[in-house]
Amino acid sequence: MADPKGFLNHGREVARTRPVGERVKDWNEVYVPGSLLPIISKQASRCMDCGIPFCHNGCPLGNLIPEWNDYAYREDWTAASERLHATNNFPEFTGRLCPAPCESACVLGINQPPVTIKNVEVAIIDKAWDAGTVAAQAPERLSGKTVAVIGSGPAGLAAAQQLTRAGHTVAVYERADRVGGLLRYGIPEFKMEKRHINRRIEQMRAEGTRFRTGIEIGRDLKATDLKKRYDAIVIAAGATKARDLPVPGRELKGIYQAMEYLPLANKVQEGDYVTAPVSAEGKHVVVIGGGDTGADCVGTAHRQGAASVTQLEIMPRPNDERHPTSQPWPTFPILYKVTSAHEEGGERIYSASTTHFEGDEDGNVQWLHLAEVEFVEGRLTSKPGTERKIPAQLVTLAMGFTGTDRENGLVDQFGLDLDERGNIARDAEFQTNVPGVFVAGDAGRGQSLIVWAIAEGRSAARGVDRFLTGASDLPAPIRPTDRALAV
């Protein structure tokens, strides 16, 4: 145990963010560089090394949290990094982007603020990169088997790295012009600078993984042709079909899906554009959707110089604290969150539903009409007399995703079965109805968290390895049927 009295002597302290007035003028990460190391040893000492560490149940990767907390407390960064990488291929991604269900399940969190597990994680991996101890792990011998991975998001990258290290020859196909999937173009730079992706890709290249960008399977290369080339295939194409808002005025110019808007801002940071083709500069912006993607749109609009930013959420405002009966420990609670983007300004409106959009004579959106809603007999119903309109010259739809993209032909060309939710069906080994074709991540699970995507990629890799060789020593942290620890 790190420090038997650590949780008694030290309160919870998280990474410091840069002043709002400073950070909205650039696209760098919002946290103060180097602010974690001076405090992280004390924070790690708050871990109680529980007899039954429920943080393991909260994390689908099965991260060895008490172990690397102990090493971080003792400042044995090499051992901490080894324990961290034992279960997680990309801790610098999860340490920045995961909402930390492990902290919701922390035993200390029963009656105190939980251990800052996420901050300890990112401190360990950043220290490891700075020390040069994150090295390529090329296989000792090759199996002679080939694998194609479709999609380079966290699930695809995790599967590819595991299979490469197992000795298979792996090629990752990505339809975008750069590797990373939504990590690259969906996550704003201020949440995770893309240098973190770039150095992982270089590590994977050194291990032997090959990358093929600008190739969309189903359109640029038929799925049937791909199957002929490889011994096995992993589909990690995500759940990219965005939920739309079919209300009058949806056809007006200036209304975009979040994943039409956010990538353009990221492409500016990549040097592809001087300014984003779709920008919030000087406009009244409305973001429909109260989740993390909506917050990403809010932060992006701030940095582009929006005149105002309003975020709408159809559900009621969540509670500030966990409810002991409706959201008991150790489940992952739905709580009111103030992200870094919300700290930067804007208005948040809950229990609001968009009724229609209004435009000008040129077909540009100008107003959004909304009404308050409430639950009546279990259904959301508009409240009479609450209709009003707010200015909206740029609207982004961040209402989630409904399943795998079928328009590119990938699903039909493979002849894949879908489950009742529109996801690609798979068996206990993550294999689809087509022998040798596996599925990992959101394409099979539905929209989920980055930590689940990495766990899926690692688990699917074991299924592929067994299919190719008859046995596998690769870890499989989850089953396809496993679900988050929630009410």
TrEMBL record:
Keywords: 4Fe-4S, Amino-acid biosynthesis, Glutamate biosynthesis, Iron, Iron-sulfur, Metal-binding, NADP, Oxidoreductase. One of its GO terms (molecular function) is 4 iron, 4 sulfur cluster binding. Transmembrane segments: none annotated. SUPFAM superfamilies: alpha-helical ferredoxin, Nucleotide-binding domain. PROSITE patterns: 4FE4S_FER_2. Residues 38-69 form the 4Fe-4S ferredoxin-type domain. It catalyses: 2 L-glutamate + NADP(+) = L-glutamine + 2-oxoglutarate + NADPH + H(+). It is an enzyme of class 1 (oxidoreductase). NCBIfam families: GOGAT_sm_gam. This is Glutamate synthase [NADPH] small chain. It comes from Streptomyces yokosukanensis. The lineage of its organism: Bacteria, Bacillati, Actinomycetota, Actinomycetes, Kitasatosporales.
